[in-house]
């Protein structure tokens, strides 16, 4: 029953308040008819395409009685943002380090014992070298149909171009606590910086059934080790001493 004047805009508010970490789907349907009840003239309504027939209401006299707009809505809940301590991955430039990063996901669906989404997510960083495993281990009681997508997001395209080729990430283990419903994901992070830097990133985990969790990370590359020490011995006062050494470029 909302009246619209020509060229007038209509805002349609959509409220989303999820109670579990799963994706919700809905369709916003808008039906428009003329205020005077007359039809829009359309000479060849029988020749309407299949796609158009689903979005218009054709009257008996061949005119168009109403027009439908259908907007699908996907509601993807995101874990509450909180002040988590970033997981720090530190390495000297021109070296390589591997670290295990453990994240806890609350409210994962499905699961009868899943905790509400209002519970805080947590992140644990263990600075022990990781033993790389070829396959993801799934403990008993964890549904193998639940899959997770993950990626590292950076603050800018410049940071992404700088860190993208220097950081590798692989999911090596996941398990679920049958009592609390909390899912634990363990990642193996490889960091091989080529120069000193300090950049922030965000580990984003998304469940295929819906739900997004975000965890802050910090990558720090310290000064590299000294390559060599060059000693120059003086041959006498006011005389030049020369020493030669080679530099080899690792790239073209």
What does this 3D model show about the protein?
With 252 residues, the protein is mainly beta. Helix content is 4%, strand content 38%. A five-stranded mixed β-sheet has the order 6-5-10-9-7, with no helix packed on it. The protein has a four-stranded mixed β-sheet with strand order 4-12-11-8. A three-stranded antiparallel β-sheet has the order 1-3-2, with no helix packed on it.
For the termini, the CA-CA separation is: 70 Å
Gross morphology: elongated
The number of helical elements comes to 2
How many DSSP-defined strands?
12
Query: Into which percent range does the helicity of residues fall?
Result: under 10%
Q: Strand-residue fraction?
A: 35-45%
Q: Give the topology string: H per helix, E per strand.
A: EHEEEEEEEHEEEE
Largest sheet: 5 strands, mixed
Protein structure class = mainly beta
Protein name: Cilia- and flagella-associated protein 47
Keywords: Cell projection, Cilium, Flagellum
Pfam family, one: Ig_CFAP47
InterPro entries: Ig_CFAP47
What attributes characterize this protein structure?
elongated; mainly beta; 2 helices; four-stranded mixed β-sheet; 252 residues
Layout of secondary structure:
Elements: E1 24-33, H1 50-53, E2 56-58, E3 64-75, E4 87-92, E5 97-105, E6 122-126, E7 137-138, E8 148-154, H2 157-163, E9 167-176, E10 183-191, E11 197-207, E12 212-222
Parallel strand pairs: 4-12, 7-9
Antiparallel strand pairs: 1-3, 2-3, 5-6, 5-10, 8-11, 9-10, 11-12
InterPro entries: Ig_CFAP47
Domain CFAP47-like immunoglobulin-like: 78-222
GO cellular component, one term: cilium
């Amino acid at each position: 029953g909302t009246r619209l004047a020509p060229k007038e805009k209509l805002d349609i508010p959509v409220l989303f308040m999820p109670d579990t970490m799963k994706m919700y789907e809905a369709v916003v349907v808008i039906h428009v008819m003329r205020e005077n009840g007359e039809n829009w003239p359309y000479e060849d309504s029988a020749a309407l395409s299949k796609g158009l027939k689903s979005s218009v209401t054709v009257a008996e006299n061949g005119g168009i009685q109403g027009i439908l707009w259908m907007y699908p809505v996907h509601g993807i809940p995101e874990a509450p943002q909180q002040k988590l301590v970033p997981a720090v991955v530190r390495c000297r430039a021109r070296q390589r380090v591997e670290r295990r990063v453990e994240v806890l996901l609350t409210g994962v669906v499905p699961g009868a014992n899943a905790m509400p989404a209002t519970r805080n997510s947590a992140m644990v960083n263990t600075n022990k070298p990781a033993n790389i495993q070829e396959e993801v281990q799934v403990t008993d009681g964890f549904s193998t149909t639940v899959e997770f997508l993950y990626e590292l997001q950076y603050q800018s395209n410049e940071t992404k171009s700088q860190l993208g080729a220097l950081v590798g990430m692989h999911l090596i283990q996941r398990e679920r606590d049958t009592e609390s419903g909390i899912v634990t994901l363990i990642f193996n992070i490889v960091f091989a910086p080529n120069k000193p830097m300090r950049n922030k990133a965000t580990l984003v985990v998304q469940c295929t059934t819906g739900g997004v969790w975000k965890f802050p990370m910090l990558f720090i590359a310290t000064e590299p080790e000294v390559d060599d020490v060059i000693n120059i011995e003086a041959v006498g006062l006011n005389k030049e001493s020369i020493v030669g050494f080679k530099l080899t470029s690792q790239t073209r």
